Amino acid sequence: MFESLADQPPDALLALIGLHRADPRPTKLDLGVGVYRDETGVTPIMAAVREAERILLDTRTTKSYLGPEGDPVFVDLLKPIVFGVDPGPRLLGVQTPGGTGALRLGAELIAAARPGARVLIGTPTWPNHAPIFTAAGLTLVPHRFFDVAGQRLDIDALAAALESAGPGDVVLLHGCCHNPTGGDLDRAAWARVAALVRARGILPFVDLAYQGLGEGLDEDAAGVRALFADLGEGLVAYSCDKNFGLYRDRVGALFGLAATPAAAEVMRSNMIALARVNWSMPPDHGAAIVRTVLESATLTSLWRDELLRMGTRVRAVRAALAAADPRLAFLTTQHGMFSTLPIDPARIAALRADHGVYMAGSGRINVAGLQVGDAPAFVAALAAVGWS
Ligand code: PMP
Domain 10-45+310-384 adopts which CATH fold? Predict the structure, then answer.
């Protein structure tokens, strides 16, 4: 049976973790793996999460099955955080195993409605996007979203892609904190996209995986809120894995906006049917933590404060890098943890071999892997390998 399988390449970023761990140099810097790190270099368990786990330990009476839709209270508590005002019964959501599960479920929902539908996808993007949509049987239509050499968004390329699309097509958009470039649409660009999406009847599918790690919870959702304010149909794949620091607990949701409340019920029943054949039901623990935090005003403000501090730290590292080398000034115009440097593979390899500086082979850096005080060493290493 399995002799027909071809070997699959390992995940390059996970391999980088192993290389970094094995490097004995005390001055090594890890800008590779995409998780938040605090000022001690740790990916912390947030204080509100710890407290919620304590509450759950004391109060939970059963671990019996939920259902394929997960915990509806968790989903309802997220709605105002994501959408601001609740659009009402046209908006539905189901809990998913992380943002990845939400993306896959959304892709399968689209494929069920319109087999082989075209998905406009801006490049570069998170490396898992294309395989997820392809695995669901959809057709990728790439366009340039970000010019890495010039460190500029290519809004015109996005607009041209939208202008060439129509009803039955999908556009994938990053809600905030673009991975891997940090290049986010500003208010005017979101308005332009919203107008085109509406005029052409395109379905927007927003991936919102880092809300709160950019400029703030409301600021990071401003684009998705503007887009959904006057929209017929749309999807949002949401992740709590980063903004609650719950990575391994796999916490997410797929939200759908349908044309009518009745269509929303049909959409929900299809999401549930697809969830059932994929994972039957999502894992409960992480979503129960989020629900416990959001049900408590005290824990919610503890969580919001800590998230705010995380975003502030990331912005401080961006500012420190820009101050250490004016050629990195673009970092302060970008959002979230990531940026993609215009740097070639030979220099990336030299940074690792000669300076213990680890970054993805694409040139993506996770700014949160650095401390403010690391900026001079990082900039010196870039200069030593001749980066410009
Ligand atoms: N979307 C983007 C843009 C991401 O960067 C990630 C995680 N790296 C995800 C979705 C998936 O998040 P999760 O871990 O919740 O599946």
Answer: Aspartate Aminotransferase, domain 1 (3.90.1150)
Q: pLDDT tens digits, residue range 310-368?
A: 999 999 999 999 999 999 999 999 999 999 999 999 999 999 999 999 999 999 999 99
Catalytic residue status for 86: no
Domain boundaries, the chain: 10-45+310-384, 65-295
- Tell me the C-alpha distance between 296 and 241, whole Å: 19
Question: What is the secondary structure of 124-151 as a DSSP string?
Answer: S--TTHHHHHHHTT-EEEEEE-EETTTT
207 flagged as catalytic? yes
State in Å: Cα 239 to ligand 1 middle.
Answer: 7
Which tens digit of pLDDT belongs to each residue from 156-178? 999 999 999 999 999 999 999 99
Strands 91-96 and 29-30, by their bridges, are: unpaired
Which residue in 30, 154, 207, 284 is the catalytic one? 207
pTM for this entry: 0.97
For the Cβ of 13 lying below 6 angstroms from any atom of ligand 1, the answer is no
Q: Domain 65-295 carries which CATH code? A: 3.40.640.10
Catalytic status, residue 387: no
